[in-house]
Each structure stands twice: as structure tokens, then as C-alpha cells.
Amino acid sequence: MTQTTPEAPMRRQRAQVKVRTLRTDRWWLVPFLTFLGLSSFLVYGVWAIIDNSIFVEPYIAPFASPCLAAATCPEGAQLFGWAPIGDWYTLSPGLLILALPGGFRLTCYYYRKSYYRSFWLSPPACAVQEPHGKYTGERRFPLIIQNVHRYFFYAAIVIGLVLAYDAVLAVVHKPLGLGSWILIANAVLINAYTLSCHSCRHITAGRLNHFSRHPLRYRAWTFVSKLNAKHQPLAWASMFSVMGADFYVRMVAKGIIAFPYA
Amino acid sequence: MSYKAKFKVWRGEGGEGRLEDFTVEVNEGEVVLDIIHRLQATQAPDLAVRWNCKAGKCGSCSMEINGKPRLGCMTRMSTFDEDETITVTPMRTFPVIKDLVTDVSYNYQKAREIPSFTPPAGVRPGEYRMKQVDVERSQEFRKCIECFMCNNVCHVIRDHEENKTNFSGPRFLMRIAELDMHPYDVADRQEAAQEEHGLGYCNITKCCTEVCPEHIKITDNALIPMKERVVDRKYDPLVWLGDKIFRRK
After folding, report:
1. Which superfamily does CATH assign the domain made up of B3-102 to?
2. Looking at the domain assignment, is residue A13 inside a domain?
3. pLDDT bracket for residue A199 (50, 70, 90)
4. What is the C-alpha separation between A47 and A69, in angstroms, rounded?
């Protein structure tokens, strides 16, 4: 059977194969699982914003930290007792800071790959034809905004330090509490993911051409490069850890989890 | 241990053609290129295939095996089930000359558009003094065997022929990164990468890295660092301000 097709003249010289791909493996599985994983994070994030059980001594839910609103943050939940947003703000405290870690993940080089593949199918998998007729990449608005990633990285460093502080405080006040160690594990993963960022790698020394003139920055770059090689697993691990830690604290706050060492 | 394998091989000229069915003997230890050669020797003497070293070092026998860009000489038959039908087609992004042989001159054209290594004025060959630590990062990119499978799999041109004019593909963006990271290169690579070679088209979906037979981390070590350098240059006001204040070049 001849497989010639009346395609556009510009493409006439390529091998004309009618099917979208000749791959015989389950290429659709990874984008499908990625779609489910990222969707679950989005759905959980929406619920976490609506839910108000953000604090139970000494735990604060990671999605709501740093808690900056005077009206909706219990006193113990406020960072150093500091609540710069006045009584006028009565919505979820998580809404105030959501854009920072959310923006960091949205513009992250790994997450970009994952959602371009699984949500936008551009492409869904390697050597599988994408369904779009036109492609302009990250050269134009809105995708050119992805270049702001390093600014979200700076913010993510601050958020990571706050989560580490929350976790240490929990361990100090309740060293035998399961929640304290869940928060510690989450803080480690969040900070490892943040430091493994490609922008971090660039800022430490990636932008230099003479490593030998900057030995300390080169050592930092070497360390970040090792972490960077694990950026994908760290992205997933920290995403599930922050969801898990947040959910755990809310369940304790609601009294649903109530054993002595909770 | 030999068996009869079922093959579908794309045959045709100038883009028009079809998948032809073959049943061919396979022996232990053979690779796909061996089977293509057996087809030439026994059933299809005019079957065209480009090959050379049979050792994964020349990059000649790039083809698509069961839809995936692979080197024919490095794809072992033992990775397939004996009852599996194996489909072999030419690289899809480039025009077909005949059967499995494609015209890859697009790549040579793009290579020519990149200015070669440009040392500072007054430094002559033989006077370069570099430490290993300064050059080893870009030495990874020198492993490239120019099989062009990264450019073949990149959806920017694979699915959008019209982008070929403005996009040089991962192979040559990696070449630009290699030169930009070189301690003695003074040419303006960052502006050229974004404006002339289409770095902004790349949406870092990493297929180039997945198919590279030399396992070069094209995306993580070349394209993303290059994107970050372009951000320094074009999109980051703080870096711009720092350059002005500290008179950095």
C-alpha cells in the first residue's frame, strides 16, 4: 500500500508516514501519570486555600507559612509574631504567599517540560507528533514570562528558610511529635529542590567562564550541579511532601488525627 | 540461535514511498544495521542506507526504529521480542534521498551560520593558557558525533517545517553554548543564540537529551545554561544594573 499523502508542498520531500507516531511502547503512560500528579497538586492547592485549619501548636501548615495576616493567623502561627497584613484582610493567609512557591514551580525548567508534555502535548512524547498547527515556543507573550524564573527562585529561598524555621520550632517544642519530623522531612526536600534549581546553578557560577578565578563559587556550582542532576525526582518528592505535610497538620488541627505523639 | 524476524522498512525516493514487509534471518549478537545489510544482500539489493563505522562513533546510520530515533549499529536485536514486527524508517525531519538515506544538509547550513572560535585580539594560537577546570564543562559537548538525531527528534522543526529558517536545533545551540562558555571566546554568542538561532523556540522538553547516543546532557548542560545567560543579557534588570554599576562586560 503506497503511503503518499497530499501534504503541504514544503513537507513533500520528507518520508510520508500517515500515522502520528510509529512508536510501539507505552509512550502515553508518562504524560498521563504526570497529568494526574500535577492535577492532584492543583486540586489539593485549591482545597488548602479554602480550608482554615492551618495551625495547631506547634505545627503550621506549609501552604499557609509564612502566615502574615493579623485577622486569620493565630498568634503562634505568625512568623516572629509579625503580621504585616492588617485586620482588613479576612481571606485565607495562604492566598497571600501562594504566588511565590506556585510561581517558582510554574516557571521551573523541569515543571515546564512536564506540563508542556502532559497538558499542552507539545510534544506529548519524543517522536510523537504534536496536535498544534503552529509553534512559537517561549519567544512571545505569555511564555516569554518564563524568563522571570530566577526572581521566583529568590522568593523560594526565603519560603524554604521559613519552612525550615517552622520545622525546627516544631521539633524544639514537640520533639517526639510525628508532625515535627514530617515538617523536617518536608523542609529538607523543599530546600533541596530549591537549591537544585537551574537558575541557582547559573547564579552560583554557571554564568562564569573562568571557574579557576572563583574557586569558592566553583565549589558551590559543583555542589548545586550534583543536586541539579536530581532536580526531577526532587521536584516530585518535594511536591508530594509539601502536600503530605500540609494535609497532616490540617488533620491534626481538625482533631481527626489525635494520637498522643501526633 | 537464529530466528526469522518480521521487518517493515520504508522504501521510496523524494518523500514518496511505502513500508515494505520483509521476513529476514536474525542471528545472536546482531544489531538492526546487520539485518538491513542482510536485506541488501538477500532480498533488496537496491535498498539505500547510510553507514560507516558500525561502532556508534560516526553518526551515519541514524534512523527511526519502531518510531524512535536510534543508531542502527547500536540497536541490538535482542532488545526486541522475536515475534515483534520491527519498523525501520528514515529520519522524519529531513528530506529523503532514497529509502533510509536522508538529506541532512540543513544541519551543515546551520553549522556554517555560526562564527567559529573567536579569540581576543592580540592573542595568537599557542598563547592560550587555560586551566582544565575552565574548559572541562564544554568538553562534554565535544563528544557529539553529529548523528543529528537531536535535531531530528526536536518537535520545533520535526512538527513545524516552517521553523527551520529561524531555529538551528539543539545540536547547534549546544555548539553556541560550547563557544560561549569558552574562556577565550569573545564573540557575542548570546544575542545570536536568541535572535538568529532561535533559542527561544526551545521549550526544554528534553527529547534531544533522551535520544543522544553519547548521553550528552544537552538540555541541562547546554540549552538551559544558555537560556540563563540570555536572561542575564536581555531580560534581567538587576543584572543589567549590576553590569552598569560595576562596569562588567
Report:
1. Beta-grasp domain (3.10.20.30)
2. no
3. very high
4. 19
H or E stretch at B12: strand B3-13
From CA A78, how far away is CA A55, in angstroms rounded? 10
Among B159, B160, B204, the residue with its CB nearest the CB of A109 is B204
Q: Is B159 on the interface with A (CB under 8 A)?
A: yes
pLDDT at residue B249 greater than cutoff 80? no
Task: Quote the pLDDT of residue A12.
Answer: 56
Chain B residue with minimal CA distance to A118? Answer: B205
Is B220 within 8 Å of A228 when comparing Cβ atoms?
Answer: yes
Segments making up each domain of chain B, as ranges: 3-102, 105-246
Cβ pairs A/B, distance under 8 A: 167
Q: Taking CB atoms and an 8 Å limit, are B134 and A210 in contact across chains?
A: yes
A10 in any annotated domain: no
- Whole-complex ipTM: 0.93
- Taking the C-alpha atoms of residue A31 and residue A120, their distance in angstroms, rounded to an integer, is 10
Tens of pLDDT along B49-106?
999 999 999 999 999 999 999 999 999 999 999 999 999 999 999 999 999 999 999 9
The CATH label, of 3.10.180.10, 3.40.50.300, 1.10.1060.10, 3.40.190.10, for the domain at B105-246 is 1.10.1060.10
Helix (H, G, I), strand (E, B) or coil at B155: helix
Task: Quote the pLDDT of residue B41.
Answer: 97
